[in-house]
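Dear support,

We are seeing what looks like truncated structure output for some complexes. This example has two components. We would appreciate it if you could run it in full and send us the complete token output so we can diff it against ours.
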Amino acid sequence: MRLLRPVLPLLAALACASGAPPPAWELPPPPPREGPVVAVGRLHRATLENGLEVVVLEDPSLPRVVLGVVVPRGSADVPVAQAGLASYTTDLMERGAGERDALAFAEAVDALGATLQASADWDSMGVEVAGLSRDLDALAGLLADTVLRPRFDADEAERLRSQGLAALERAKDDPSTLAGWHLARVLFPEHPYGLPQEGTPETLATFSASAASALHQYFWVPSGAILYATGDVAHGDIERRARELFGAWGGEPAPSAAEPPAVPQARRVVIVDRPELGQATILVGHEGIRRADPQRIAVQLMNTVLGGGGFSSRIMGRVRENEGLAYYAWSAFAMRRAGGVFVVSTGTRVEQVGRSLAMLLEELEGARTSPPTAEEIAHARSLSIGRFGLGLETSEAVVWALVDLDVYGLPRDSLDTYRTRVREAAAPDVEEAARERLHPERGAIVVVGPAAALRPQLEAFGPVEVVQP
Amino acid sequence: MLLLLLAALLAAPAAASPELQDPTERARVTVLPNGLTVLSLEDHSTPVASFQVWVRAGSRDESRYTGIAHLFEHMMFKGTRHLEPEQFTRLVEGRGGRLNAFTSQDVTVYFEDVSAETLPLVIDLEAERMANLAVNDALLQTEREVVLEERSMRTDDDPEGRAWEALLALTFVAHPYRWPVIGWRSDVEAVDVAACRSFFDAYYAPNNLVVAVAGDFDSEETLARIERRFGAMRPAAGIPRNPTREPEQQGERRQTVYFPVRGALLAAAWHAPATGHPDGPALDALGEILSSGRSSRLYRRLVNDEQVALRAGASYWELHDAGLFHGSIAVRPDASAERAEALFFEEIERVRREPVSEAELAKARRKLEVRLVTELRTAHALASRMGSDWAAFGRIRPLAELLGRIQAVSAEDVQRVARTYLDPARRSVVRVVSPPEAAE
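Here is the complete output from our reference environment:
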């Protein structure tokens, strides 16, 4: 039971409440306080003679430093027969470099309490090291070794290959990973986007230290590469170190091999049979847009209304809030250099899969036939602008966003103009994005769960294929 | 009404690292007459703010229905006397804010990370739902289904979720930490509106709440607004707590969970002290030495050298009433679970038998130090640190104190805590493996 307080303070509280101004939700929102994305005087750029771009964002607020090198070539630039080789190469780059073998290298990183990670994405590969600014010398040395002098030791290469095979097999225990693999396979046959970035058992069988070394030599070149630093650093000092450590780096520019994928022509319905699951994972997907697509702001606003705006989105409102069918329900456009993928996802109890899937498809169709209202678009604009600001709270986030612009060849003032572009995106553009970019009639449907119970529910959507994980 | 200001702040001991300032040294602590504690940290470095309400109620406070603390957390988004269901969320998302909530064994936390000008809105919204929540049967029915789907995703269909649920149920036989935060399915199916209301009345009282706010705001204005909006809430006479203590474990406990998996999962736990215990930093250091980075002992032995696991780690988990030192191993599909388990326990025995090297200890200290620094980056992280400390200790532990405790750990301490707590006769071990017919 709550304590009933004496009458006098209670009256005082009521009096106070009645005299209080109305709650903020009844008032118009205050004007946004938007400062520059990058604090004046903090961002510095330089270009070395070998083409390496240097980006430094000074932020002395904490005694930390983050340093990285990115090259604008990634998994999508590798032939299908070598799917996974970009990830395999970057994984191997951090397992021994310079004078240190894998164990000595790990000891050197761990002794600084630092993190060092090399990784591959569809359109880029990168190495990043983070630690205390007082260790800048050692951190920069580890970064340069990883980028310029990876050892590609044969025993490490074999160990990593074996681990990769085991990890691929084990990943089948995760329904969302399985669903993603099979959606990509169905949508993009014969294209790098159609295979996991980690590769397949068939491609991993061909990997070796020499294959990784060849990929490294071909793609890790200074032309187009970006060295970035942020934290408690001085730009002059970083530029000097860049020249010392990376000035002699050479190599011919490597063209991007990424081609736009073919557009899927007809709907396919695939069940990945996992008889033991009580909840089915549902994906609906088709081709999306390129990262540099001129319509991307309108597409993003449309998707925010549809399924990218959290609880404010139509899909979440319908599937979770109104019907209680799922814990999550979202849609997203993953944008890459040569193309992209659009995905809608939810997870629901097996007996409700047909009903939930019908709702997702209705919402996609509905976005075309009843396009976002003025109110929905205004909400999506405000949400996008606010998330943009929150997403750039740390200087790492700002520097990553700046590097991303360079990787995709987008204008360097894109962060500064983003909020204006979102405000100026017109309702007809958003409607057009819904009409032109959503294709529920030919989107692929992938469901992971017990095939016996799923098949009867899915036959209404098209011919059903059942595959094993 | 007047604010009751405690001594404006916490003493500021010399920082262990001369280049590091502890932002929470500038935190203000205010206690309203109704018992609500407000921790505020004004910091204008970026135009954002994090507003958090820490409720000192979690799954350990449940009595009739397990999972009610978490289900109730979901109901806090379903409308109030003045707000429609989900209007709260739409208002915050519509201003670009990020909001969510989580429930743990000890606390339930609601947070909004917003642009600076949106802070007054979220203060008013949080005060509204804390004071005027509306729970009705139709909304509860729908949200119950949502929570059951969450349970399927996180636990029933997830081998790691199953391992964790089984490990807690095995390690704790008496204390409420033995049941899952999300609740047993049958309990979630049975919770009714009256039970929700009584949980709310018992625990969502101002004298059981801590508000933590950090970021770009004016302290006077913000505190005045919090006081105006939250000041009318009435305190509870007392907060009910489950009295159960965990009896000492006598003997090893084992459980096998059958679930079709390609790679087995192993989990093990030992009882360890509750949060705030002087042995905590040595247990943290032990966790680092065993599992942090590719030079750590478990990675080297199980993943790298013997190649029986894809992942192997162990760490200290500190709760308000008790703690665990626990480990887990993701066994490779081509390796034997028995062999992986044997290697894991060999490494545990080694830290009990021999002192760790000075180099390993220095590495562990540095990792813990870097982690503390890294956690100072955002308004959200700062508010979380303040709220979490206050909910557990009734004070904000200065960074210098935390760093000092890390620096003071010796190799003897690490060996002593390993010997004291990691006794093979008092461990609990769970294996998630495919059922015998599927393994054929």
